[in-house]
Diacetyl reductase [(S)-acetoin forming] (Jeotgalicoccus coquinae), 257 residues
Amino acid sequence: MTELLKDKAGLVTAGGSGIGRASAVALAKAGAKVMVSDVSEEGGRETVKLIKEGGGEAQFFKCDVSDEDQVKALVDETVSAFGKLDFAHNNAGINAGQVKIGELDSNDWDKTIKINLYGIFYCVKHQINAMLKTGGGAIVNTASGAGLEGSPNMSPYTASKHGVVGLTKSVALEYGKQNIRINAIAPGATITPAIERWAEDNPEQYNGVLESLPAGEMSTPEDQGNVVMFLCSDLARQINGVTVPIDGGYTAGKLQQ
Ligand code: NAD
């Protein structure tokens, strides 16, 4: 445990697995009270258990981020449980419709945009309104390397994550003077259940990704969670409106093969 987020309280969406679980654990280890939220009750409650076993403080609240009423209820419940909202990690995202756009089912487009982009909009809107009442705060959105450059066969995902990067920049300009910072992370390939499922289905692409990484390895959820924790802390007080790639150098340029 450190003291970096002592007396701070906030929430994590999609905290029941992968990157969200790792950030919830990192935030709690830094001393924060964490409302762990996920559409999966099982995953979310497991994260709360892990945090409590490590001596931290956490509660679970079920929330599907594509439903604005549920998102508002999550923010209200966090403020009611902890008295304020100092930080939020908006992390829920899916990658439906992994085909060329000419073959894309519109339902996969809608589903992806609804969770990845509307979800971030609902979260940020209600979190900002809560933070304005209690003196400010820090928001971190999970974008992706696919929010910084194009990626074939995942146009809904790429479009949604570019949207997250743009929304993050605009909102940073709107509320800086009210002591609210908002940033995003752009994880590169990170070993989470989602990537493990994808690697199983696409072994050749998986090996190709590994070869293209300057670090020669994928990042871990903990690599991502630690940066989220830093961005939520006052150490990052001059960082606002940026998207931080956490990808071992992948977005720095192309490796000479
Ligand atoms: P994961 O599959 O490990 O976990 C995803 C979690 O999201 C699950 O617990 C699931 O129940 C929850 N979830 C799904 N739909 C939801 C909804 N509508 N509302 C609330 N929760 C919901 O995934 P992960 O790899 O940790 O991904 C987390 C975030 O990181 C996503 O936004 C993803 O796009 C992004 N990301 C991941 C990678 C990677 O390589 N893993 C790379 C770039 C970006």
